Recover the amino acids of this structure.
């Protein structure tokens, strides 16, 4: 499965759990960490957890296993590592504070909500 198909599953999972401000940061050739970051927000700890769980479930159903996960205990910023794609599921307040989009502002950022 190519990265576009994986990104489609991730974005759909975020939308299904009403994640907001979904952005894909295209980092190809800019870092060895990943080709893409997906950033999404949830309005509560329960929603952050639900978004992360939905992504994990749908990716697993597609045969894509999680390499690593961080932050599941805090439910404020959950990181899901799928190798070439790293998903950041933020509580609104943490996203505003860390502002990953600003850190990678020179990279191509695709706002998924603009495409709906």
């Amino acid at each position: 499965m190519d990265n576009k198909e994986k990104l489609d599953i991730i974005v759909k999972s975020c939308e299904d759990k009403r994640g907001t401000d979904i952005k894909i940061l295209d980092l190809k050739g800019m870092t060895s960490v990943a080709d893409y970051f997906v950033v999404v927000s949830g309005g509560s700890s329960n929603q952050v957890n639900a978004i992360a769980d939905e992504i994990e479930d749908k990716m697993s159903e597609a045969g894509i296993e999680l390499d690593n996960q961080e932050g599941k205990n805090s439910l404020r910023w959950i990181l899901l590592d799928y190798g070439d794609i790293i998903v950041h599921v933020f509580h609104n307040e943490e996203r505003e504070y860390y502002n990953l989009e600003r850190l990678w502002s020179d990279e191509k950022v695709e706002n998924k909500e603009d495409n709906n």
User: Anything to note?
Assistant: The chain has four helices and six strands. The first helix runs from residue 3 to 16. The chain has one domain: 3-111. The chain has a mean pLDDT of 89.
